């Protein structure tokens, strides 16, 4: 890892810490990053920190990955608007979009740029304790020695003391019914004090419809609290793909045509677009290299 890369990571780390009351609190929200590590980096003593640790830090606090440049799509703009509206007005929203439309990227970018924003990537295997402990961690609360109820009480108190907190539950449709009920608890105790945004694919619509149809416990409450509707992100367009290409050095008509072809075949999944751009860059690099023996022939001719 180069010195310039380490400086960029250090800059992102300190900006992340500035969003919290102190570096000690910030360190509690990060995995395997101690306050002393943060201090060492803040003091510029990079030689004392391993490349693996810098990589771990970059994964947690940097939105930019390597040479890839993020370009906002229409769907990402919609996501930013929903997040900003929820935080400013302390409301609850469930945003849906197709897989690969940029929901997670937008969520993480918004979190990195705003204070009092707490992001959780949900998963199918989360149990109640995992969920509450993860929520406590991103807020900066130590919950190792607390029961679930005690930890939840600490979370409620901490959020209630903040000016304009926002909770983001990415891939919220993966949470079990039992865990979703905690959302009702948070809402009931912090209504008009905290913004909450769930994001997922539109699979949640069928799950909600079935829950309402069979009058499953909690579904009426959840549906009411999200305003009895889901917010759909705009689909990725050709213009979005062209913008992403331009931001990442793909400019010739031939390259644009190939990337767009793969994007269309992949239902405009942004992961497919990224791989297509990477592929074109590799092809262009290989084609620009001199063939075997070409350098020697040119030298002889010269």
Automatic annotation (TrEMBL):
SUPFAM superfamilies, per database record: P-loop containing nucleoside triphosphate hydrolases
UniProt GO MF annotations: ATP hydrolysis activity
InterPro entries with a match to the protein in the record: AAA_22, ExeA_AAA_ATPase_DNA-bind, P-loop_NTPase
Domain ORC1/DEAH AAA+ ATPase: from-to ranges: 89-207
Name recorded for this polypeptide: ORC1/DEAH AAA+ ATPase domain-containing protein
